[in-house]
Amino acid sequence: MRSPADYSLRGKKEAHMESSVVAPAIVIAVTDECSEQWRDVLLGIEEEGIPFVLQPQTGGDLVHHAWQAAQRSPLQVGIACDRERLIVHYKNLPASTPLFSLMYHQNRLARRNTGNNAARLVKGIPFRDRNA
After folding, report:
1. What is the CA radius of gyration of the chain?
2. What Pfam families does the record point to (predicted)?
3. Domain residue spans in the chain?
4. Choosing a second label site near 9 at 20 to 30 A (CA), which of 21, 28, 31, 113?
5. Does residue 113 have a pLDDT over 80?
6. 3-class secondary structure for the chain?
């Protein structure tokens, strides 16, 4: 199992790629050093066997950042997060209409299942209930 430092933008021990997207991966736009808060989402993506890349992002509209991340992702799925909220977007959806929105105060299972579902979108298989 990876340590929390493996998912930190500060530590360059990333288990997954950073910055440029060359290989197929879900692009995750990260603001405010938020990757540790959303570790359960990252673990959910990893459980499904889908790679992801963390890209630093300055503040702004998370929905738009998630949509832009989906446009950059070879897998057509993008995520954006700050310390309080996480957005999952799909390239073929309108920019203003994200697939999932999650607040940090929601339980760990909801966060993990959101990661699973982002990866399942890539795989083309049914979503899990985010709260089950």
Report:
1. 13
2. Dehydratase_MU (PF02288)
3. 4-123
4. 113
5. yes
6. CCCHHHHCCCCCCCCCCECCCCCCCEEEEECCCCCCCCHHHHHHHHHCCCCEEEEECCCCCHHHHHHHHHHHCCCCEEEEECCCEEEEEECCCCCCCCCEEEECCCCHHHHHHHHHHHHHHHHCCCCCCCCC
Tally Cβ neighbours within 10 Å of residue 18: 12
Q: Is the pTM of this model over 0.85?
A: no
Burial of 118-130, coded b for 16+ CB within 10 Å and e otherwise, reads bbbbbeeeeebeb
- The type of residue at 7 is Y
Q: Tokens 């736009």 — which residue?
A: 29
55 C-beta neighbours (distance < 10 Å), count: 21
Are the C-beta atoms of residues 6 and 13 closer than 8 Å to each other?
yes
Tell me the two tokens of residue 81. 């997060």
The pair of three-digit structure tokens given for residue 113, joined into one six-digit string: 């299942």
Cα distance between residue 130 and residue 112, in whole Å: 8
| Residue found by looking up tokens 């499904």 in the block | 48
Nearby residues of 104 by Cβ (< 8 Å), 6 or more positions away: 37, 38, 83, 84, 85, 86, 111
